[in-house]
Amino acid sequence: SASMYINNYADTTYFGAISIGTPPQSLQVLFDTGSSNLWVDSTYCNTQACNAHTKFDPQQSSTFSANGQSVYLPYGAGSLYGQLGYDTVNVGGIVVTNQEIGLSTQEPSNPFLAAKFDGILGLAYPGISAGGQTPVMDNMISQDLLNDDLFAFYLSRGGQQGSELSFGGVDNSMYQGQIYWTPVTSETYWQIGVQGFQINGQETSWCSQGCQSIVDTGTSSLTAPSQFMGNIMQAIGAQQSQYGMYMVDCSQINNLPTLSFVISGTAFPLPPSAYIEQQNQNGYQFCSVNINPTYLPSQNGQPLWIFGDVFLREYYSVYDRTNNQVGFASA
Amino acid sequence: LKVKIPLQKHKSMRETLGEKGIKIPYQDPALKYYPEQFAG
Fold it and tell me: I want to staple A45 with a disulfide (CB 3.0 to 4.6 A). Which of A2, A50, A80, A253 is the partner?
């Protein structure tokens, strides 16, 4: 019975473990390239949503120190309130000391009750961090903890296991061919330029004046500028259902067009198997298009795409803080 | 250091709530990047 803002995190599905404190307390977090804060459920919070998750207990950590500041995190999937504190964070064996952490004090809306994660670890730039919190990656860099100041994601297409996030270097076993690099256009999110959009190899010219894309592991779908949606769905042959979803005939998936993005001179194709989601509800199988519209432009006014998990399952993605560039290779 | 962290795929909030008959309203995904619009 809540009217809640829910969007990006409602559909996210890939999570991993970190530990916080001394002795370490393990929590499942969403590693999110579309935000910069670290927050976790804590014993400061006693809402139904908090009680449904593993909570970090600062009183059980000998290395925790509170800083007395509170923070409001306006996430799209139900905003939350927290207290800031410092503690040691262990990310896959990398020990980050004096990491500022948001400890939830109130999760006012219901959606987090259904979340399978206990917190979010933001991997975007410090400039967008709420409360001026220093992101985990920035502390890894300043504490000289990494071989190379980069991280990389492999998101598995099927099955619960197999996905991977690496810090300090790329995992050569998770991609084929070469990594194609493109510069970050705004050091806020992992935002890049898109110079072309093709349908079945035919250039549409929709991005001839430039488009932007935010590469976001915290968003599930491929998000397209709203002004392109009608033409994309027409090219796919999708019909809008009464619930607003775009549907296609499951038997026709192999005949649907390949969508491609041209980035720094290289085309990155998305076959229909990447953007069509086959679902089964109550024995009824249906196929929906996992592309959603956005009505907002990028900060520079150009049409905005979001490369969420739909794109990132096809392409191993590398986020290079030294050179401020994003790399893609065939996953 | 260079480390690898395994990620696991779980049910999304939307799937979990959907199984309980709760539909989540659509919201523009790009609003995430304009947090001032949530400030109210």
Answer: A50
Residue type, A82: G
Interface of B with A in 1-40 (CB under 8 A): 1-14, 16-17, 24-36, 38-39
* Cα B22 to Cα B11: distance, rounded to the nearest angstrom: 15
Of chain B, the end-to-end C-alpha distance in Å amounts to 42
User: Residue B3 — very low, low, confident or very high, per pLDDT cuts 50/70/90?
Assistant: very high
Mean of per-residue pLDDT scores for chain A: 92
How far the first Cα of chain A sits from its last, in Å, is 41
| ipTM for the whole complex | 0.89
Contacts of B30 (CB under 8 A, 6+ apart): A214, A223, A294, A295, A296, A304, A306
Catalytic positions of A are: 32, 216
Which strands sit side by side in the sheet containing A196-199, from one edge to the other? A202-203, A196-199, A259-263, A266-270
If you average pLDDT over residues A274-279, what whole number do you get? 93
